[in-house]
Amino acid sequence: MTPADSGAHPRFADALRELGLGELNDRIRRFPDATRTAVEAAAAIGCELSQICKSLIFAADGVPVLVLMDGASRVDVERVRQELGAEKVTRAKADVVRETTGYAIGGVPPFGHRTKTRVLADRSLLEHDVVWAAAGHPHAVFPMEPKDLVAHAGAALVDVREHTS
């Protein structure tokens, strides 16, 4: 893995320092090609698709909520709805994602957002020693132990992945 250069989005780099995680800035990898999707990120890093942590914003009765999901799985919106006790859950529109997190879709990190939102993390993330997540930019990712990532995101551990039969 040879990154073009290292570096997170400046807002995310600041958030890492504020959280006492400044050393993670040295572990961020920036690639010349986008790592906007889980497939692109896994290919660039050379890891399993399930080692990618997707940060997805949904709207639960109109209120943004962040769902952290492994890259090989899909979110079951009905499970999210039940978990939150909401009447309706939908994918948030791009402008809501940017307004809520401060980042564009494809570069949303699991924490360090512009606003405080409720966070759900699927248990599947804990199946790995290390997962990779967006560092605030579609070309940048960082590694972290899943339990630490969940803790720093302030996430509740849940089972919200789509199960195929």
Architecture overview:
- This protein is α/β, with parallel strands linked by helices and 165 residues long.
- It has 5 helices and 8 strands; from the N terminus they run αβαββαβαβββαβ.
- Strands 1, 2, 3, 4, 5, 6, 7 and 8 form an 8-stranded mixed sheet that branches.
- Strand 2 and strand 3 form a beta hairpin.
- It is globular.
- It starts with 9 loop residues before the first helix and ends in a 7-residue tail after the last strand.
By secondary-structure content and strand pairing, the structural class works out as alpha/beta
Strand residue percentage:
15-25%
Alpha-carbon distance between the two ends: 36 Å
Q: What is the CA-based Rg, rounded?
A: 15 Å
Q: Pick out the low-confidence regions.
A: 1-6
The helix content is: 10-25%
